Predict the structure of Rrf2 family transcriptional regulator.
Amino acid sequence: MKVSSKGEYALRALICLGGMHSKLISIEKISEKTLVPVHYLEQILLQLKRNGYVQSKRGVNGGYKLGKNPKEIIIGDVIRNLEGPLAPMGCVSITSYESCPLEEGCLLKPLWALVRDKIAELLDNTTLYDLIERKI
Amino acid sequence: MKVSSKGEYALRALICLGGMHSKLISIEKISEKTLVPVHYLEQILLQLKRNGYVQSKRGVNGGYKLGKNPKEIIIGDVIRNLEGPLAPMGCVSITSYESCPLEEGCLLKPLWALVRDKIAELLDNTTLYDLIERKI
DNA sequence: TAGAAACTTGATTAGATTAGTCAACAATTT
DNA sequence: AAATTGTTGACTAATCTAATCAAGTTTCTA
């Protein structure tokens, strides 16, 4: 039931950027603060950029900043974008359902559905703002 | 946030055994019913045996059966035994805590702790009996 | 002796991480 | 104003690790 390191790292980076008030900060600096390996962080920021969560500027004094208001960045969405559905099994995923040969009559499906509901309810009602302001 | 296939497969096997009323059933039969690859299932059953969840009998007409009453088999424990802690991150795991260099001041920890609580509350209050009798 | 589980080992695959190169930009130099 | 240089992000490939799956061998029991 682990969150992948990719998701954890992405959130660390967003939190870091959220505390910079739109001032640019370089990948290297983010890496120092978040303890995420530089090259891996690079890939993650790229992915966050494609999804509009961050913006970048190249060249001297370039770097990254948030691309959205922290109140508009929903943690559940970030996780989904970076590491796939929140649901513990594809057969109960709403955002990216996968059929399963057992399916009907599967006694586990209702349980996984409950797990998904609990996780989604939590992460879809938490924003980056909530984390930064320690509302949670 | 996935459950590993190991955990899913183990639960499928236990559900299958739970419906046999202590009659022995071979790995191959279990594999047919649960669609779990035979050789992988073998390893999983071995692990379940070490933890007392199942019993085996060798030789002709041998096979597996449950080692405990379905009401005593807690889903959360099965998952923990097979794929490790329920917590999404080691830093919030109660059963197998791992320290993290960020730790104090980490804004994510409280969130992960909530996730852990929700998952654990659900899976630790569900037994194999509940699944088999469709109480959930 | 035949059928079945137990066990060992290796192959395959996917995820995580690291390494290295290329392209853009801004300040500096000429 | 043009060329140069250093800083930075963008991108690709290789390495490492763990999960998953497969095959074969051994041991036990009717």
